[in-house]
Amino acid sequence: MIQLSNVDFRFDNNIVLQHVNLNVNKGDFIAITGPNGGGKTTLIRLVLGLLQPSAGVIRYPEPHPTIGYLPQKSTIDTRFPINVEQVVASGLINRPIGDTDRKQAIEQTLSDIDLENKRGNAISDLSGGQLQRALLGRAIIARPQLLVLDEPLSYLDQTFSGRFYEILNRLAPTTTILLVSHELDTIARIATRHLIVHRTVQECDAAHHFSHTRCD
């Protein structure tokens, strides 16, 4: 699906990532971890095309896969006058879908993220966890071919974590997933590949040999 060949990324002459070689294949569920500041979010942004490499090549298929993205930290201004349903529905922008299918997708997604009773609430009324769920809904509503989640569990309610894993399990058969997380106990059991990012990318061979910072 996406190929990174000898990719480097520098910021202000500092090397953030170097010598990255990675193939993201259709159907992968890739768990990504590594030390803080090791380059995990930079890798994600390179894969998404939000950053351009300082060296090396990133190749994408034609046509590009459809993408759902949940960033590490929301850049939404909570003072913006938009409600939960509108946030979720914004994930369908530029997607060809009829009115009936659109309505069904919104209803199903609001149910998935357990925010049906908050659909009309302004985002300024939401807790941090509820806003994260709304943004998750935006990322998954169109059933993207590639779903990228950067530390999603850092802001999700603890009581929602079980539902979150159910959503991932349901999407995994038809969606390629890249998930950055330090919550490895459950993620490692359901992921098919495991990467450590610390200025470069190291792939671990087995889940039980996978830790926050090394392949044992």
Q: What would your notes on this structure say?
A:
The protein is an alpha/beta fold and 216 residues long. The protein has a domain at 81-143. It has 6 helices and 9 strands; from the N terminus they run E-E-E-H-E-E-H-H-H-E-H-E-H-E-E. It has helices at residues 40-48, 84-89, 99-112, 128-140, 161-171, 184-190, and strands at residues 2-11, 14-24, 29-33, 55-59, 67-70, 146-150, 176-180, 193-197, 201-204. The strands form 2 sheets. It has a 6-stranded mixed sheet with strand order 5-6-7-3-8-9, sandwiched between helices. Strands 2-1-4 form a 3-stranded antiparallel sheet, with helices on one face. Strand 1 (2-11) and strand 2 (14-24) form a beta hairpin. The longest helix is centred in the middle third of the chain and has 14 residues, at 99-112. The two termini are 28 Å apart.
How many alpha or pi helices?
Answer: 6
Strand numbers in spatial order across the main sheet: 5-6-7-3-8-9
Biggest sheet features: 6 strands, mixed
Category by helix and strand content: alpha/beta
Strand content: 25-35%
Please tell me the overall pLDDT: 89
Instruction: Please compute the radius of gyration using only Cα atoms.
Output: 17 Å
The secondary-structure element order is EEEHEEHHHEHEHEE
- The percent of residues in helical segments reads 25-40%
Q: Tell how many strands the DSSP assignment holds.
A: 9
Distance between the termini: 28 Å
Which blocks of ≥5 consecutive residues have pLDDT under 50? none
What general outline do the C-alpha atoms trace?
A: globular
